[in-house]
Amino acid sequence: MDQKAFFNLSYGLYIISTSHDGKDAGCVANTLQQVTSSPQQMAVTLNKDNYTEQLIEKSGRFCGAVLTQDTNMEMIKTFGFQSSKDADKFEKVEFKRDVHGIAYPIQNVASYFSVKVVQKVDLGTHVMFIGEVEDAEVLAEKEVMTYAYYHQVKNGTTPKNAPSFQEKTEKSGWRCSICGYIYEGDPLPEDFVCPLCGAPASVFEKI
User: Fold this and answer.
1) All residues at 6 or more sequence positions from 23 whose CB lies less than 8 Å from its CB, including other chains
2) Which fold has domain 167-207?
3) Is the pLDDT reported for residue 17 higher than 70?
4) Residue boundaries of the structural domains of the chain
5) Which in 28, 52, 88, 177 has the greatest CB count within 10 A?
6) The domain 11-150 is classified under which CATH number: 2.160.10.10, 3.40.50.850, 1.10.860.10, 2.30.110.10?
7) DSSP 3-state assignment of 3?
8) 46-50, 55-59, 188-192: which is most confident
């Protein structure tokens, strides 16, 4: 099977967030989509190992924020390459809360949706949450970031927990454990600094 066929599917890039029992969580995802227009329903698929997924299971609600093309890699790193269990991802970003207290970012966001989960589907390693949209708002009239733009222009990579992750065996080198940037070559210079997130060589992992 040609794995590259999957690369022709079109995706957006979003931050999925939730809050439960005083704890906020959020992650980057490319799987948010509208599934029906009447009623207005959306679905998102997240890995079971994802802390945001685990809190959605408890809260029964989530917000989806549509990222714009001017989103910086620092924000992607914050929400995409660390766990909300260990870090307060909303500490350094502008955010609001919906009427149910769910935190969602507002900087570099074109629009947001507040969703109540009405059904979930177990997909083995992942869970699909299907929910009714209770509120939505356009926050900025800007070009939204597609998954292709993220890879081709931002030179971004995909976290292992993402549904679209594919192990790339054709490349050899070193991967930044913070943002996912790949340095092709061996050895990795001791004084190398990640061009995306500024992390030192010590956090790079051999691939």
Assistant:
1) 55, 84
2) Rubrerythrin, domain 2 (2.20.28)
3) yes
4) 11-150, 167-207
5) 52
6) 2.30.110.10
7) helix
8) 55-59
